[in-house]
Amino acid sequence: MRIAVTGSIATDHLMTFPGRFAEQLVAEQLHTLSLSFLVDNLDVRRGGVGANIAFGMGQLGTRPILVGAAGADFDEYRDWLDRHGVDTSSVHISEVLHTARFVCTTDADHNQLGSFYTGAMSEARLIELKKVSDRVGGLDLVLIGADDPEAMRRHTEECRSRGIPFAADFSQQIARMDGEEIRNLLEGATYLFSNEYEKGLIESKTGWTEDEILAKVGHRVTTLGKRGVRIDKVGEEPIVVGCAEEEVKADPTGVGDAFRAGFLSGLSWGVGLERAAQVGCMLATLVIETVGTQEYTLSRSHFMERFTKAYGDDAAVEVQAHLS
After folding, report:
1. In sequence order, which ranges of the chain are alpha helices (DSSP H)?
2. How far is it, in rounded angstroms, from Cα 8 to Cα 10?
3. What angle do CA 269, 272, 277 make, to 5 degrees?
4. Catalytic annotation present for 257
5. Full-prediction pTM beyond 0.90?
6. Which of the residues 87, 173, 174, 180 has an alpha carbon 20 to 30 A from that of 8?
7. Tens digit of each residue's pLDDT (9 = 90 or more) over 263-303
C-alpha cells in the first residue's frame, strides 16, 4: 500500500530554568512584565504529528509519503527523515516562513512558559493531493492528521472527490473545532482515530451517538491508554488489543503517533486489524520508554522478541514476514 501521512511538521525547543518563575514575579508590576531567564540547557527535538507518524512507519520499513509544510530551515530535519525511510519529496517549503516550532521553558517546580509558532504550517493548505498521487503512482490511503485546519478540510474534500480512502485523525485540533467542522471531516472516513477522551468529545460536539458515528466511518480506532486499543466496525464484535509490557515509563509524548505508525504499517502489510493494532501497541511501548518522539531506535530482533512475548508465536510469525 502507498500511504500518505498529512499533518504538522515542527521542532520543539525545550529549556530548563533552575529557579522558580514565581520568585521572579512582582504582583504590583505584572502589567509591565519584562523578564529574561538564564537557562541551563537547550534540548531541540524533532516533532509534529505528521512527521512523528511518518518516522515510525519509516522505522518499520513501509516508506510513507509525508505531506506537510515546512520552512527553508527544514534541510537538516529532511535529511533525518530521509535517512529513516520517509519520502519527503511532497513536503511544501515556504519561501517566507520558518518551520513551526514550540519554544518552552520549564522551572524547578515544573511550571512552564511556552509559545507555539505555526509558521509554514499555514501553507499546508496549498498542497494538492493529486500531485502527490501522480508522483508516486497512486495513493491507497491518506491519513489526515492534525495540521492547518484549512489544509485538513481541503485534503478531506479532495480525498472524497477523487475516491481516495482516508483516515480522520483530529488529535490536538479537536479542541478548536466545532460540531459542523468535525462532522464534515469524519463522514466517509475509512478509519477514525481518537483517544478515549476525544471519542467522547467528538460525540458531544457533533451531537451524533456512538452508533451514528460508526455508521458514517468504516472503522473506529480508539486508544485506551494503558489498556491498549479498541477497534469497532458495524455489525462485528469489537477487537481489543492490550499494550505490551513496559520496561520503563520515560516520556508519554508521541505515544499516540507511534501507535498510528504501527497500525498503518500493519495495514500496509495486509496483516489484518488485530495484528496491525498489536504492531501499533508494540511501537507505542517502545516510544514511551524513550524521551522524545523520534529518539528511539528500532532493532528488528529486539522488536520481535518483545512482540512475541506480548502477543504470542503465531502473531510473531505473521509480522516477522513483513518486518525486514
Report:
1. 49-59, 75-83, 129-136, 149-162, 179-186, 196-206, 210-216, 255-269, 273-288, 300-311, 313-320
2. 6
3. 90
4. yes
5. yes
6. 180
7. 999 999 999 999 999 999 999 999 999 888 898 889 999 99
